[in-house]
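User: Here's a structure from my thesis project, written as structure tokens. My advisor, Dr. K., wants to see whether a designed sequence matches the one we expressed. Can you design one independently, without my sequence as a hint?
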């Protein structure tokens, strides 16, 4: 059986380590957790007839989806005309609208291709600004977490093995139903695993209970460097699904449980965006963040991608987006399928800086081999489809006061690889995750080389 099953079971742990989240316990008496009415049902009565039809999938056509994406300038070539600031920025630094080039061989047989749109912000000046990661703590629980929980509360499941068994059973069912396996031998192994999981679940379910988790941060000792992190974790019966909640000093996220639940999305993008903005308002972030992208995404088992609308709201600095900040949503028919939030606290007014001519940025890309780790698979090609001028946070490990936001050119795209069975596959990194990043002021490589 492939390693995929084990990977699913460790996704929560890996994400926890990324955010500095631990696995401590809270001790409390047993409670009965009441599931609140779904937000979608509450809003349905107030929707106009046409929007109500879209909500129920009666008018959710590809045409309506595409129209909204085009209005946002997110698909095809239908991008709104550039402002005078954008035009002046291109002229000042020699920034083209398109950058194409093929680097036939990098010495390791990998073909590196650039056929990318070059996107510039609506800005005429740039800064280097002190900033630090926003720290999440008790105040943020009250501001961000509690308004989302509603009546659901937060609990853990005893015994702990139960949650992993449920994840495993759902994963195995999904693989069998959709034939996500190679050959009859793997299918047979999956069927045996499913039967074993069911028997084990039947035994464990007789002991399952929900134990209340207090809405407060707890500490645990992380092994690496002895650093201590505060964290909050648990489950909540929120809206129409059970969600896994994790929060640490570095950020917070909500993910459905079981992890590989089967979901669907037939609502319109307009309604999905309204829902996302409603959740953002509950968290007290309306007006602080702006929509950076929105798109319809399909279910992808291999990357763990859910079906639904993906929205990212980011913080801006003088009209330029700060990447890897803000709120990420996946919205489907049940409401929120995923939610994560991280941010930066920006310090002084910053120091004005000039950017390098784009010709120098191009040369850096030409001379660089983009590093992508996809072991045990064999990397075959890397293709860059978009260059974007943004702010990126750079951390100085030796002097925190030198950490901050710098203008950066980020490259996005996809790569192809040959898997362990000799099959050629295409991997698109998560939306907003770049393959290569260069400091736009001094040309230093920030990521990917």
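Assistant: Designed independently from the structure alone:
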């Amino acid at each position: 059986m492939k390693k995929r099953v084990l990977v699913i079971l460790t996704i929560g742990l890996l994400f926890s380590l990324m955010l500095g989240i631990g696995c401590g316990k809270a001790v409390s008496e047993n409670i009965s957790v009441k599931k609140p009415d779904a937000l979608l049902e509450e809003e349905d009565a107030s929707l106009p007839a046409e929007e109500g039809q879209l909500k129920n999938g009666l008018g959710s056509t590809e045409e309506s989806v595409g129209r909204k994406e085009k209005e946002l300038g997110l698909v095809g070539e239908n991008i709104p005309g550039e402002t005078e600031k954008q035009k002046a920025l291109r002229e000042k630094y020699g920034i083209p609208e398109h950058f194409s080039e093929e680097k036939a061989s990098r010495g390791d047989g990998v073909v590196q291709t650039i056929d990318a749109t070059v996107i510039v912000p609506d800005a005429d000046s740039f800064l280097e600004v002190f900033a630090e990661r926003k720290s999440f703590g008790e105040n943020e629980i009250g501001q961000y977490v509690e308004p989302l929980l509603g009546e659901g509360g937060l609990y853990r499941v005893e015994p702990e093995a139960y949650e992993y068994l449920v994840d495993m059973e759902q994963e195995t069912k999904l693989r069998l139903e959709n034939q996500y396996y190679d050959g009859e031998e793997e299918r047979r192994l999956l069927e045996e695993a499913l039967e074993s999981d069911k028997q084990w679940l039947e035994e464990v379910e007789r002991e399952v209970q929900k134990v209340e988790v207090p809405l407060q941060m707890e500490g645990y000792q992380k092994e690496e460097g002895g650093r201590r992190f505060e964290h909050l974790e648990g489950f909540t019966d929120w809206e129409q699904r059970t969600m896994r909640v994790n929060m640490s000093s570095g950020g917070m996220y909500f993910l459905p449980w079981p992890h590989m639940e089967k979901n669907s999305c037939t609502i319109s993008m307009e309604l999905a965006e309204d829902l996302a903005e409603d959740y953002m308002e509950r968290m007290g972030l309306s007006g602080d963040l702006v929509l950076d992208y929105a798109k319809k995404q399909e279910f992808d088992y291999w990357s763990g991608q859910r079906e639904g609308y993906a929205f990212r709201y980011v913080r801006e600095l003088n009209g330029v987006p700060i990447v890897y900040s803000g709120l990420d949503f996946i919205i489907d028919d049940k409401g929120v399928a995923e939610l994560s939030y991280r941010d930066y606290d920006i310090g002084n007014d910053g120091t004005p800086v000039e950017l390098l001519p784009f010709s120098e940025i191009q040369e850096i890309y030409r001379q660089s081999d983009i590093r992508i780790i996809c072991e045990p698979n064999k990397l075959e090609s890397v293709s860059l489809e978009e260059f974007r001028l943004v702010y990126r946070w750079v951390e100085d490990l030796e002097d925190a006061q030198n950490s901050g936001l710098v203008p950066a050119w980020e490259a996005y795209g996809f790569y192809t690889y040959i898997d362990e069975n000799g099959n050629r596959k295409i991997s698109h990194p998560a939306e907003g995750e770049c393959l290569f990043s260069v400091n736009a002021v001094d040309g230093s490589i920030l990521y990917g080389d």
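When you compare it with your expressed construct, this may help: The chain is about 30% helix and 30% strand.
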